[in-house]
């Protein structure tokens, strides 16, 4: 599947209802992503990838406790239920020597969704 940009809370809810496996990606225009999201989408095609700016989806961001300093944050949803959360902001990068790469994100998706 390809990356789906979402800018309204209701649109996110609809996508989650329509898909079995969803990776919700919270990032804003200043967020640095080490992972190439297009390559991630190609690497695991059975997952719907939804990209959101927390400021544009405030209710969704509040529901998943998204913090500005933790961006990018990845929420793994299976049949609407949160299975995992990966907050990869500055503290994650300091602890792990860098952000989440394409390969690391693909591996995490496969582990969480058991695919």
What topology emerges from the helices and strands here?
Elements: E1 3-6, H1 9-18, E2 21-26, H2 37-43, E3 48-52, H3 58-63, E4 73-78, E5 81-87, H4 90-96, H5 102-113
Helix pairs in contact: 2-5
In brief:
This protein is an alpha/beta fold and 115 residues long. The chain has helices spanning 9-18, 37-43, 58-63, 90-96, 102-113; strands at residues 3-6, 21-26, 48-52, 73-78, 81-87. 37% of the residues lie in helices and 24% in strands.
Largest sheet: 5 strands, mixed
For the biggest β-sheet, the strand order reads: 1-3-2-4-5
Oligomer: single chain
Strand content: 15-25%
How many E-type strands?
Answer: 5
Summarize the structure in words.
This protein is 37% helix and 24% strand. With 115 residues, it is α/β, with parallel strands linked by helices. A five-stranded mixed beta sheet has the order 1-3-2-4-5, with helices on both faces. α2 (37-43) runs parallel beside α5 (102-113). The protein is globular and about 30 Å long. It starts with a strand and ends with a helix.
